[in-house]
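Protocol step 4 of 6: record predicted structures for both targets in the notebook before any analysis. Target 1:
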Amino acid sequence: MIERKLLEIIQEQCFKGKVILLLGARQVGKTTMLKKLVESVHVETMWLNADEADVLNEFTVANTSTRLLQLVGANTKLAVIDEAQQIPDIGNKLKLLYDTKPELQIIATGSSAFDLLNQTGEPLTGRKRTYQLYPISYEEVVADTNFLEARRTLETRLIFGSYPEVVTNPGNEKEALLEIADSYLYKDILKLDGIRKAGQLKKLLQALAFQVGSEVNFHELSKTIGNIDSMTVEKYLDLLEKTYVIYKLPALSRNMRNELKKGKKYYFYDTGIRNVLISNFANMDMRFDKGALWENYLISERIKANQYALSFPNTYFWRTHDQAEIDYIEEMDGVLHAFEFKWRDAKVRFPRSFQNAYPQQTTQLVNMDNFMEFVGTEKKG
C-alpha cells in the first residue's frame, strides 16, 4: 500500500470528540486507508459497509439510540460506516450515536458529497471534521519511491491517471483505468437524483474533456449534447462536482471593466479519467492537447497538495474580453498568486493589465523544470 498523507491527519484527529467524515470518489483508496488506520489504533472496532444489503437495512430501521448502539456494539471504541450516504437520515443517526456515546469515534465515508454532506450538515454542526481523499498524489509517489522514479513515471500518470489500482498495476494501467471508468463514471453516477440518460452524461463528460483549459458555456454545451437544456447541463455539472469527477475554477473579477465576470472552467480530478473519455492514450510527444493535459494535471495535484497541507486558498483563472489570460490564481491573505503552466517553455509574459489592476500579487511560470515545488514536493532521493 502506498502511504497516504491524509492517514496521519486523520490519526491525529481520532478520539478528539468529533465525527470524522471522509469523502472521495469510489476507488481512491478510502477503505484501504481506513483499514490501515484501524491496524494502528488498537481498539475494539466495528466496520459497517452500507453497500451490503443487510447493513443498509439495519441502519434504515434503526431510529433510536438504543437500536443504533446495539448495531455498532456495546464495547466498540471505533465505528467505521462505509458508503454512509446510502443510509436514509444518516445525519440524525450519527448525531444520536454521538450524543449518546460521545467516547465512540465515528468515521463515516461517502463517495457523494451531494448526499452525505446534505444529510449531515445541520445535524452534525459543530460535531464533525470533514476530509477528502483524492487519487494518489505525486508527493505520495515520491515518498513511496524516490524523486527519480516519480519523475520517470510522470508521463504515465499524465496519461493513465493516479487511481491506486492504476498506480499499483504497472504495465496494466489501461485495463485498470477502463474498469474504474466503466464501474464508477456511469453506473454509480446514474443512480444520482436528476441524471437519467447515460448517453447525455457521456456526451457531457466528453465535451468537458475536449474543453479542458477553456471557458465553458452552458448553452453551447447543451447544443453540443442535444436534447438537453442549459439548466439541466448546469445541474449535471453540479452533481459531477459533488461526486468528485470534475472541479470548477471560476473567473476572478474585481477591478477591471473588461474582465470576464461569470466565466468558469472545469478540470478533471484525474487525468486518466479525462483521457478515457476521449479515448486518447498517446504519449505526450504525440499529443495535440499536451498543454491542456499538463494544466489539468498540475491543478489537480495542487488541489491535493493544498488539501493535505490543510491550506484552503480561493482559486480562480483570469481573463479579459480582449483575450489577456492567466491559467491559475490562488488568493491567500489578500495576496493573489498567479501561475502560468507550460509543458516545456522557459519563459512567459504575464499581462501588464493584471499586474496594474492587482498590485498585491506574485507571478510564477510552472513547467517541467520546477513543478515539484508547486505540487508540494521538494527534490530528493
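Target 2:
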Amino acid sequence: MQPKEFLKEHIAKTALLTDDEFDYFFSFFKHLSYKKGQSIIAEGDKVEHEFFVLGGCLKTFYINDDLKMFILQFAMPTWWASDYNALYSGAKATVNVDCITDAEVLCLSNADREKMCNNIHRIEHFFRWRTNKGYVASQKRLLSLMNNDAKHRYEELLEQYPALYNIVPKTLIAAYLGVSRETLSRLYHS
C-alpha cells in the first residue's frame, strides 16, 4: 500500500476527512527511509518532528547514568514515535528513537501538526484521540510495572503484541519489561 493510502486508512478509523482535506494534510508529511540501527532522535537533539511508522520497527529508549537501557516504546506500522516532551516544550531530547529494523516513516513537524489542528477540526480530533489513547496505554503499562511480576508482564506483552517476538531481539524485550536477558530467557522457556 502506498504511504498516502496507508495514512488515510489509519486516520479514517477515527476521523473522516474529505479527499481535499486529506490531500492538504498529507502535503505536510515527508516520506523518509532509515536503516536498521540508524538514529532518528538522539538525547540532546532539538526535536521538531514526530514519526508515523509505515514499515519496520522503531524503539524509543532512555539510557541512565549507569548506561542501563530502558525501552519506553516499540513502534510498529501505524504507531507514532517521538520525544514528546521535547517536541511540545522545546526542551532538548531526553530520550532516543532509533530503528530496530529498516524502517519507512512519514515525518510531520510540530508546527505543521498545530497548523492542521487549527485549520481542520477533524484532524484536531484525530490527534486528541491518539494522544488520549497513548496516555491510557502508558498508564496501563506503568500500573503493570508497579503491580505485576515479570512473568505476568511478559505474558501481557506476548498477548498484546505477538508480532514483536518475531521482530525485536530478546535483549530489547527484556529492557522493555525491566528484566535481565537471563530472566527473560527463563520466562520464554517456562
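Step 5 preliminary note on target 2. The first helix runs from residue 3 to 12. Residues 148-190 form one domain.
Proceed to step 6 after PI sign-off.
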